[in-house]
Amino acid sequence: FWLKLIAPVSHHSFLIVAAIPCTRTLAMLGLARVTASRALLRRGEAAAAAALRGHVVGRQAAAAAAIVASQQQRCFAGAAGKVAKVLEAELKHEEAELQPNKSVKDFLAKSDFKFVDTEGDVNMMLERQAGDKIVRIEWQARSPFDAEMGEEGEAPPDEGTDFSVTVESKSKGSGIIFYCFTEAGEDSRYIIGNVKAFKSTEEKESVSGYNGPEFDDVDEKLQEAFDEYLAEVGVSNQVCDFIDESSLDKEQREYIRWLRISKDFLES
Fold first, then answer.
1. What would the pLDDT profile of 54-90 be if each residue is shown by its tens digit?
2. Which residues contact 74 (CB under 8 A, 6 or more apart)?
3. Whole-angstrom distance, CA of residue 46 vs CA of residue 170
4. How many C-beta atoms surround the C-beta of residue 164 within 10 A?
């Protein structure tokens, strides 16, 4: 951008006479700087405008989402409140109908079995010790209603309650399990389905272990001997009555608990 004027001094050298700036070149340089500054300004203004538009759009989108969420929450709260009211009415009805089962309390007061019943768990157990053996009778809550109805709307006969009797050695871990179910009757209140024998805890808990033969297929003398053995470890008609009554009572108590938990959740 500078114009240099030189004059020869000799054959091999030159002398710089003067160096003056070119006016036209300076003007062009100044114009270029102004143009660049304006371009930067325009880019800055465009970026600021874009940022402002993004901010406005973001706020509008957030406001719209908040409106939708509020509407959905009101709809959800309305449905939840409706269900909660129905649950509350059903809960009051069931609590009014629930009566303490006196026969269950009477049995436990006279029995040497320990009753294990955990709230929220459908499983129940009677447990006692007989020397080195532990006897466990286990069953579950069951509904008093049957989906299959007999002729003219009559309910089919009660099929009883499934239960198991485990007699296990505390020292060896071996034992035997009777898979049974209760039935109505005076002479015998239960029927044995299978008898499983196990040598260890692992074999006892194995889902693929052999559950023993069908009880009806074994020799009659063996059937009688097993019946006597069960009576000796504590299985009686009174125990079967307790199993049937407690299974129905447990179902009712858990149903009421379910109503209460569901209502409280929907009201929260």
1. 655 566 666 666 665 666 666 566 788 889 999 999 9
2. none
3. 85
4. 17
